[in-house]
Amino acid sequence: MRQAMAYAEVGDDVFGDDPTVNALEAYVAGLFGHEAALFAPSGSMANQIALQLHVPAGGELLAGADAHVVTYELGAAAALSGISTRTWGSVGADLDVDQIAAMIRPVGYPSVPTRAIAVEQTHNLGGGSIVPLSTLRALRSVADEAGVGLHCDGARIWHAAVADGVALSEYGALFDTLSVCLSKGLGAPVGSLIVGSRERIAQARVIRKRLGGGMRQVGILAAAGRYALENHIDRLAEDHARALRLAEALAPLGVVDPSRIRTNLVPLDLSKTSLDSPALAGLAAQQGVLIAPMLPSIARVVTHLDVDDSGLEQAITVLGGLLADAS
Ligand SMILES: *Cc1c(COP(=O)(O)O)cnc(C)c1O
Question: 239: Cβ below 6 Å to ligand 1?
Fold first, then answer.
């Protein structure tokens, strides 16, 4: 990947003439069966650009209460775009399509018109869970009927595709826009893309520049992303297998149900232990195992391309020891 970056041909992407960026955008659009894509510096910016494409100021976005766009983007939809967000309460990937359909409000004074629905795939706070294709198809019908946009926060959509054997183009066909991350499980240092129609992506380019996300000789980063896409998607199955192995090893301690582990995220429920998640993360870090405190009682373990079998065994030993002492 570093070599691909070093040898990348570059131009000025603000003028649309960085060949490596243009090639990456065309490649990713093709993967999802869409017309166009746009490189963005982060997944949050990619999501926020997509939301602006769908929702004018004063319009409404529907999303899950535990969605990244609601929980981890610092109120950006409201702060930057004047978007009003209303949330459904279902957990992670367990979407109730009828409930979402009933929430949609039509355009017309004096209500706040619903303009878009955002879905996360895989679901981060849902522990890497996957929204089934059948649910997404039903949601697509709902969006079509109501005339609202459907956006996928697909930061980890690669994981869903590998775990469920669904082609990326199948997901692509169900959404008006998708944001996808190169910098999570795929292991590129930086970068996300927004995927959609030629018209929407032309508008996305304007919004990106307005947000300060237009970058110049960014082919260096695009080359890393291209390398990641070509070399690091199929191997996600290894991360999923390791995540399951970790969950099975820790299951006897009562902190995780392995049957719920679908991809590379393993949420550990600490509510029946004497540790909260910052405490567990701190103790594990002292023994060389890095995990993320998500909620006070939930710690998140992530398997990825820098965790090999011996690293996994170390994580099992360290976390297993700490949790056994705390239960
Ligand atoms: C990481 C992530 C993003 C984007 O985050 P950035 O740090 O801004 O790149 C978006 N959605 C989900 C579900 C994520 O996990």
Answer: no
